[in-house]
């Protein structure tokens, strides 16, 4: 019996696992860590080769020619599929050309579905290659500290048709590019933009968009047609209103559940036929879908109580109200949450 116990303890249970589970384990490791596993057995070498780049983590601290290294790895394994690609290249030289070697075009050819691009945190000078728009299988894009490419020329085939989620952090992107993403990415459900470049006019015309989460750093936000939009959030939209005369227009968003932050210093808030301006409040259209509203008011502003009451009249099914109260100098005095 003791001999049986000893034999059981020496049994290689990991090798009993099916290839699918071992491949999943390898995909969770960094590329160099997965390579070390090949010394375990010939079977691991075979698995490593077949799944080498399935989840390609290209974070390579200490390497100077990162672009060249990535191109070399892709060239050495021309048939390896790539599902996701992650690049945390925080110390790239300022003059590094990211389009060298066509690495992104090669990823597009292999059907990449997820891209995580994080570049030099000291500036936004690194530009994502134009071949981003060749990634027809792309579903998720997260980018930090870079410049978004210009939109394709008119007449080209609709790109990024599978893209469902975009997250941009400290990315320089033009109004034209934002509006292009909102109108041409027909599967886009979530767009998050924080600490990005300032916008002029953001125009939402998207049949699929559900969430727009941003700083609210724009002059005008026009929701023309967003039948599935549920969440419209501008973190500091109310702060932009005083100096930049922000205008918010919502023409068609029948499923909108969350809206904020609104403030009295907007030049105009227009929802359907309802218009809020500095000297006129005319409530004609109700929005029964809205459940949560976030507003900013200053107790030094004359008529702020009447403004809140008129605003609430638009949302007969409102359940939660967030209020930020500002004092002199736009100093935040109080923030509260209440139920309606």
From TrEMBL:
Source domain of life = Eukaryota
Residues annotated as signal peptide:
none
Instruction: Tell me which residues make up the F-box/LRR-repeat protein 15/At3g58940/PEG3-like LRR domain.
Output: 103-323
Give the residue spans that cross the bilayer: none
This protein's name: F-box/LRR-repeat protein 15/At3g58940/PEG3-like LRR domain-containing protein
Which species expresses this protein natively?
A: Urochloa decumbens
């Amino acid at each position: 019996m003791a001999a049986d116990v000893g034999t059981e303890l020496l049994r290689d249970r990991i090798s009993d696992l099916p290839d699918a589970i071992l491949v999943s384990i390898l995909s969770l490791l960094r590329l160099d860590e997965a390579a070390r596993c090949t010394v375990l057995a010939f079977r691991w070498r075979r698995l490593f080769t077949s799944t080498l780049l399935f989840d390609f983590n290209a974070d390579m601290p200490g390497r100077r020619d990162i672009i060249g290294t990535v191109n070399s790895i892709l060239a050495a394994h021309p048939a390896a599929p790539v599902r996701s690609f992650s690049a945390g290249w925080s110390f790239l030289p300022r003059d590094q050309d990211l389009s060298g070697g066509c690495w992104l075009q090669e990823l597009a050819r292999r059907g990449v579905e997820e891209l995580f691009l994080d570049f030099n945190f000291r500036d936004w000078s690194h530009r994502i290659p134009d071949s981003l728009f060749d990634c027809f299988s792309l579903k998720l894009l997260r980018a930090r500290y870079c410049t978004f490419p210009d939109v394709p020329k008119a007449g080209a085939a609709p790109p990024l048709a599978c893209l469902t989620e975009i997250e941009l952090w400290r990315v320089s992107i033009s109004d034209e590019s934002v509006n292009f993403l909102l109108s041409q990415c027909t599967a886009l459900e979530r767009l998050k933009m924080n600490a990005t470049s300032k916008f002029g006019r953001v125009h939402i015309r998207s049949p699929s968009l559900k969430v727009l989460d941003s700083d609210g750093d724009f002059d005008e936000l026009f929701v023309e047609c967003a039948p599935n939009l549920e969440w419209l959030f501008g973190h500091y939209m109310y702060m932009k209103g005083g100096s930049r005369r922000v205008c918010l227009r919502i023409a068609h968003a029948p499923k909108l559940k969350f809206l904020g932050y609104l403030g009295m210093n907007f030049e105009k808030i227009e929802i359907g036929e309802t218009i809020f301006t500095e000297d006129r409040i005319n409530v004609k259209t109700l929005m029964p879908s809205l459940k949560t509203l976030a507003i900013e008011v200053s107790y030094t502003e004359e008529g702020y109580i009447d403004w809140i009451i008129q605003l609430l009249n638009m949302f007969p099914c409102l359940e939660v109200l967030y209020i930020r109260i500002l004092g002199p100098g736009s100093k935040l005095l109080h923030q509260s949450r209440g139920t309606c």
